[in-house]
Structures are given as C-alpha cells and as structure tokens.
Amino acid sequence: MSRVLNLSGDYRIRVQAGGNIILDPGSSGTVTITGNLDVVGSQTNIESNSVSIQDNILQLNYDPNNIYNGDGIPTASPINGQSGLQIWRGSRSSAYLVFDETVSHFNPYSSSSVAGSFVMKTADGTPSALALSGILTPTNSNFVFDMQNQPFVLRVVNAAGYENRVLNDNDIPTRKYVQQYVTNAAGTIAVSALWYPTVTPLVDATTSIQAFASSIVFQLGGITEVSLSSGGFTVNDITLYQDLISNTGSNINNLKLSANTGKVEIVGVLVLDDQGAQPSVTSGTTNIYSSATIGPGKTGIYFNNNNASQTPDELVSRSRAVALSILL
Predict the structure, then answer these.
(1) pLDDT, tens digit, 9 for 90 and up, residues 218-235
(2) Is the CA virtual torsion 260, 262, 267, 273 positive or negative?
(3) Are the CB atoms for 300 and 293 separated by under 8 Å?
(4) Secondary structure of residue 244 in the 3-state scheme
(5) What is the pTM (predicted TM-score) of this model?
C-alpha cells in the first residue's frame, strides 16, 4: 500500500552525528527522486554494477560557491590544476584521464603554445597508451605532434616487416624503409632539389643541387657554379660538349691549360685550324697559328709576338730550310 506525505514546508530527516540514513526498497526496488539531487559532502560512493545517465554532458570540478574564480583549473592543492576521471585498478596504480592546466601544447590555430592539455596516466605519473583505429583532425587545422622540445622521436614499434608494407602514396615511411629502398634500388625518388644547409625558408639555402626538366644545377653560396644540360657540362665559364672544350661564359679571357710542372703534354696529333686573320698579341706571349696562305716557308704555320713588332713570320719546313741554307 502506497503512502503519500504532503508538507507545506521543508522536510528533514536527521540522525545522530556519524549515523546513516538508509532508503531500502529491497533488492529489486527503485528509489526515485523527481526533483534535483544535491549531495553535499566530501565523498560519494555508488556501489552498482552499471550506471545509466541521460545527461549528454557531465560537468566536473563544478564550483557553485565560486570559491575558485581564477583563470582555468586551480593549480593549488588539492586540485593541482587537474580535473577528470580516476579508474581503480585493484593492486595496480589507478588510471587517470584528466585535463591538466599545467601541461601546455602547441595550438595550430594560433601557431603558439597554450596552457591546458588532456593527459592519460596512472597515479604514479606514468603516461598511458590509447588504443583506437583513427584520429580525426579539424577541417581547418594541421595535425601536429608537439615534441615539447625534448630529444625524442616518433617511432613505430611492434611492427616487424613494416618497411615492406609501405606501398601506398600516403603511407608513412620509416628510416629502415628508406635505407632498404636505396640499398635495393627499388625505384627512384622524385625531388625538385637537394638543399644544404636546411634553412627556413628553404630558398635561402646556400648550397643546392636542383633538378629541372632540361638541366641539373649545382649552386655554392647561392651562385650557380656547375650545370649539366643538353648543351654540355659547364663549370663556371668552361663548357665540355661532345669533343669540344670551349669558353662560353661572359669572361673574355683566353682559354688556358695549366700544369703544376709548367709543361702541357699532348698525346696525339695537334691539329691547328686555319685562322682567317692575324691574331692579336698579348704582351709577354707568342702566338703560333695556322693560315690558309702558304708563304716561303711552305708550312702555313705562323707566329707573332711583341719582339717582332706583331709582324707575323712563317715557320720553315726542313726541306725548305736545307735549300735556303745552300743558297745562303
């Protein structure tokens, strides 16, 4: 038989200090509270096998009396800047999922470090793992790994043979994959340039190897020193193309061959092309050149220098020299 107690004011049940108030509907009964439930105390225990909560948001660290009205979760004891869930693990250290105001992270929205991060750990402070099948990033932000300026790396573990499974364009390679790729010559790596040193922005690098559609360019100190193209191999102003070595730059100096012994040796026949005009003479030098005009010396090989007042003269052949010596 049901009973209804109607009161016009508050209703209070009081027992002696330290006593208990027990609502006992039996093992299958239910205690229903139709209004709000306000529990005032230092500890609330729920000894049930399952809890169903219709609220879609649970608010923790609630401060109705506005005792802690600072910026963020209070960092003083006993709160210590943390609020979250504790999971009891028997004889093992309890697990925590908390929001910690004292742990900062890099925020890609503001490109700066901000206070407050979610932390998963055990009661002894050891970070815990998170098992899931994917991580969803916001639609307007990069996905960032904040290494906290610590000397550590991102690493794949418990993944034997991982390097052999990197097959798709968006798979993340490892160091072992790159080493194996290069060693086995499994393919080619397409890059636009190799830079050293690596700086930001990259175009400020002083030394680089740049591969273009029609050439490969080597730069030192930001200046092109060597290039390889269909027109030949060029080092500074000297170009090697097929069987020709030529001075192709803006430098108007002569093409020079130099040896540390002071001698240049030619292994083969020296072929001199006929020159259409007498070459000019540089002070302290002698020109030897070929001409289509054969003179008395019958060689067509001429020389000129400053001592001869730049007047060319012909080298004499052996037979011609013998004849001239008889006549003289």
Answers:
(1) 988 888 899 999 999 999
(2) positive
(3) yes
(4) strand
(5) 0.55
Quote the CA–CA distance of 121 and 87 in Å, as a whole number: 10
- Within a domain: 169: yes
Q: Is the dihedral of CA 176, 182, 188, 192 positive or negative?
A: positive
Those residues whose C-beta lies under 8 Å from the C-beta of residue 315, and which sit 6 or more positions away, are 288, 297, 299, 301, 302, 303
Q: Tens digits of per-residue pLDDT, 260-273?
A: 999 999 999 999 99
Domain that holds residue 179: 155-188
Give the C-alpha separation, 65 to 229, whole Å.
Answer: 78
DSSP state of 141: S
304 & 270 share domain: yes
Structure tokens at 16: 């002696």
Tokens 């636009």 appear where? 192
Label residue 119 exposed, middle or buried (CB < 10 Å: 0-12, 13-18, 19+): middle
Examine residue 316 and state whether it is found in any structural domain, yes or no: yes
Q: What is the 3-state secondary structure (H, E, C) of 27-56?
A: CCCCCCCCCCCCCCCCCCCCCCCCCCCCCC
- 19 part of a folded domain: no
Report residue 162 as tokens.
């991982």
Residue 204 DSSP code: G
Which residue positions in the chain have pLDDT lower than 70? 185-205, 308-310, 327-328
Domains in the chain, number: 3
